[in-house]
Amino acid sequence: MRMLVVGSKGQLEGRWCASLVKTARWFSTLGPARMRCCQPDIIQDVVAARPDVCDQRAAWTDVDAAEANPDAAYAVNALGPHYLAEACDQIGAWLVHVSTNEVFAGTPGRTYREYDLPQPGGVYARSKLAGELAVVHTARRTCSCGWPGCSVPRRTNFPAKIVAAADRHGQLRVVNDEYGNPTYAPDVAAALRRLIRCGHAGIFHLVNGGSASGSSLRSPYWL
Predict the structure, then answer these.
(1) What are phi and psi of 146, to 5 degrees?
(2) DSSP 3-state assignment of 27?
(3) What would the pLDDT profile of 66-109 be if each residue is shown by its tens digit?
(4) SS3 call for 50
(5) Number of Cβ atoms within 10 Å of the Cβ of 213
(6) CB atoms within 10 A of CB 210
(7) Which CATH number, 3.10.350.10, 3.100.10.10, 3.40.50.2300, 3.40.50.720, labels domain 2-152+182-211?
(8) Quick check: pTM over 0.85?
(9) Rg, the chain, Cα only
């Protein structure tokens, strides 16, 4: 398997790449400059590399900055994936695209399925939905996965930040009306690998079982 990663490294990428590199005959990266994927030349780069799997990891994830820079956010999160999808469709490669749970409204007590209607709110969410639609309508062999937060050991993630903040301040105020499915990055990486090996294309929600919120935490810190 020939694998090409486009974009900067994150929590999922490390585990996902590690799970594939063991069986890959060839592995390379394009990046980490996220704006590079917004240029049409990226199509020629991917076609020339001729990977079996293209892992699209370049993304604009700063929600507040997206509101202030909507054009840039859409370029990275929507136009970039569209170019990669075009390239992958030309060579018959798999495109792995990571979306977000933010494309949904987030109604309390609501569990969202792949067939539910997205209702993105801010610029970030709308740009991610635009990218999701671009890849599934352009490339025939696409795995577009959506999830809530993920974590891996010894990496910067939400649980680690909460623990560090509690250690520094002793008391924390956090919202307790938001619910999600904290998901382990190695599990998502394994699921993506299985989807590709089985030839399943489309949109998938990849999450671990159970849910959590601020009110469900049990710790010596006041929340």
Answers:
(1) -120, 145
(2) strand
(3) 999 999 999 999 999 999 999 999 999 999 998 888 899 888 77
(4) coil
(5) 15
(6) 9
(7) 3.40.50.720
(8) no
(9) 18
